[in-house]
Amino acid sequence: MCGIVGYAGEKSSAPILIKGLKALEYRGYDSAGLATVEQDNIEIVKSVGKVAVLEEETLKHNLKGITGIAHTRWATHGKPTTLNSHPHSDCTGDIVVVHNGIIENYKTLKEDLLSRNHKFISDTDTEVIAHLLEEKLNNVNDNLEDNFLKAVVEVTSILEGSYALGVLWKKVPNTIIGTRVKSPLVCGVGENENFLGSDISAFIEFTNKAIYLNDEDFIVIKKDEIKIYDKLLHEKYFNVIELDINAENSGKNGYEHYMLKEINEQPFTVRSTIEEVLKDINHAFGITKEELKNIKNIMMIGCGTAYHATMVAKYWIEEFCNIPCQAEYASEYKYRQVAMPDETLAIFVSQSGETADTVAALEKARAAGFKTVSICNVFASTLARMSDYTFYTKCGSEISVASTKAFTAQLAALFSLAVLIADAVGNISSDKKDELLNELAKLPVAIEAAVAQDKNITKLAEKYYKQSTFVFLGRNVNYPIALEGALKLKEITYLQAEGFPAGEIKHGPIALLNAEMPVISIMPGDKLFDKMVNACEEVMARGAKSIAITDEKGFKLLEGRVEEAVILPNVEEYLFPFLSVIALQIFAYRIAKLNNREIDQPRNLAKSVTVE
Ligand code: M6R
After folding, report:
1. Contact 77, 107 (CB under 8 A)
2. Which of 27, 29, 351 to mutate to test the pocket of ligand 1 (most atoms within 8 A of CB)?
3. What confidence tens digit (pLDDT) does each residue in 406-434 have?
4. Does the CB atom of residue 401 touch ligand 1 within 6 A?
5. For residues 22, 27, 32 and 34, what is the CA-based torsion angle, rounded to 10 degrees?
6. pLDDT, tens digit, 9 for 90 and up, residues 99-136
7. How far is the CA of 165 from the centre of ligand 1 (A)?
């Protein structure tokens, strides 16, 4: 994880680096630091906590350097302390490095360096890189730039793991060298200024021109020159992409938290995503009906909330397409012996498109020769660039660490893809296809009504926010929503929350229940309603509090057989997850707020998990 920024230009670099770090803070926020170089002086400022703390600290130093690198950290090796914050230096302090990723062989490298009398001040894996560079550059006094580049190439050739690096060397003061392996790195191209960033948000305020780096590219950045080399030091041709986005309105628009803003944006983000698909569903995903026609097996892969979206889609795909379909955690898929049947379509879902586990799983699927389709929210992200086809959800930036609007947009995309596949394999008639898509197109109105339940859900939260354990139950498409409701709650409240298939509680989880414990059942008035009522009865028989997330139809059928109910509009039963998840997002948000939690940046988490 972690975010890195670099600036080479004519202006004082520190304020620009701080802006970049603020935009990248979603990648980690336990400590931050920056280094600027002015003539032959490198100054480093670091602090524990958010970028705002670093900003204050930096103001005290009056940094003048016009070239600099900076870092916001999500700790992997070593606690979040000032000493462990990046940038890290060598023994002389002439070389500084910022790093996103993990150097897996750092222990051996560190032992070797210690035996050669290098002094380490941090517990990080990153510090070895600075000391290894020192050994290459120690006595270098000519061909400085060439030797700097050569040193970075040679040092990275012995690193194992993943890294995006930004490096400064005092002797080449107006130059940043960057490189990457399995961690994202982008260069921003400006007028008399160029940038480096973990993603475009690091510099989008200054330029919308970007160069996406590939693994083992080495980029040399000055204010008026950019060169890219391969590991044999051959200069490479590169493309500058003009991004179709200007600095987005990334403020909170009057909402107290990004999470609340993003929950409220869902009628629009789902609508935009549906409109994008329905413009031309046959071409929306890139993959043609001809290619889909012979698909015999579907794999869907994601992490966290994105994984829950694939779990919902599994129900849709098997129902509409009659094709075996699995949803799997990327981190599990990558490291197990998986069956690799022919004619498999592999679908990857990720808001950021940078999640290391998902990227690793995609590599495996590609190696198996599967056709790969990604559903991402971030343009030109690693996953998008590696997949055969990509569909971009139309969410705009999702800033809150807890994912909300990306999830419902992923559902909209996956539902449409399920219908497209069903049509391509001939499992549904064209009337049925139209009917399914019409129901989807009507959803945004119902989503507005779900968002408007905030007041009722707040009352519920006020009643239960002091409880320490919450249980969520669902069946069929609503079972993954029980998991997502629990994930959302634990992420931002730090309370224990468990999601189960309702039919499973009697097989063990019911032992958890005690008097007063809130058990939230997702139970629209559908074909499984009676089964859900049975689960509620079992819950109430143990004295626990039964709360229903239902629809108008279900509410009538309930006849008071639960303690509380949140009533959502009637939609086709396979679409209820779009609504029930919003109720649970609001529930988690309100409980977190009543408990005074740090909602947008919960402890220990990062928005984009770029380490495996
Ligand atoms: O960017 P991605 O969608 O690949 O991220 C996957 C998970 O890390 C993410 O959904 C995580 O679980 C969220 N914090 C959930 O709110």
Report:
1. no
2. 351
3. 999 999 999 999 999 999 999 999 999 99
4. yes
5. -70
6. 999 999 999 999 999 999 999 999 999 999 999 999 99
7. 24
